[in-house]
């Protein structure tokens, strides 16, 4: 299925995304950290906007919405569970719901943990998942509202997607995430190599997102609590995956 995916840097380290269905020309915007760069990206391509998909209620993901809608009226989609603290929604969704964008269809996943009610949008026809502050490049969102076990459940839902899925996360945190990841998974050759690539990309001012799920599975410690090397480093050989995940999250908070 023909489609285009555009990554838009916003604010100091946020990302918004545009997904365009090539058949119908319909465009979805995922998160709205800042209006100006988003409007510029639409204008540059002479695109209209059909939908806005909101992942969670934090200001740095919604604050540009009103301004964008003035120039680009669109249907606003967000989590029903969060409707009380999101901008006005036209469509309120929950896990398992589907959102249609021309010939493409997004499936909604509840990926609570960073916040309760955080959703991800998985578009199988474009092999892309918009994860914002749940699964991030080499990391996962800080647990402002949820418990580690809940975030681990959310990670497992995303781990079950096809491994060639493109993971579109919400922030450019990858370089600091890499430094931390190496402390819990120091022998991982794939991680060492990715870390070097990240340093090179950032030195050239290039984004390190989106990333492939297969890459995250091989290198992101938050998807690897079952890994023997990580367990040996943490001295947690007999713990459950959820316990190892919680320990990794705790160490990251204190890193
Ligand atoms: Zn957030
Ligand atoms: Fe954020």
In short:
The protein is α/β, with parallel strands linked by helices and 255 residues long. Helices cover 34% and strands 24% of the residues.
Annotate the secondary structure layout:
Blueprint: E1 3-10, E2 14-21, E3 27-30, H1 35-45, E4 51-53, H2 59-62, H3 65-71, E5 75-79, E6 91-93, E7 98-101, E8 104-110, E9 119-123, E10 128-132, E11 135-136, E12 139-140, H4 148-159, E13 166-169, H5 174-184, H6 189-203, E14 211-212, H7 213-219, H8 228-234, H9 241-253
Parallel strand pairs: 3-4, 4-5, 5-6, 10-13
Antiparallel strand pairs: 1-2, 2-3, 7-8, 8-9, 9-10, 11-12, 13-14
Overview of the structural elements:
This protein is of the alpha/beta class and 255 residues long. Helices cover 34% and strands 24% of the residues. Strand 8 and strand 9 (119-123) form a beta hairpin. It is globular. The model has no long low-confidence stretch (mean pLDDT 98). Fe (iii) ion binds next to helix 2.
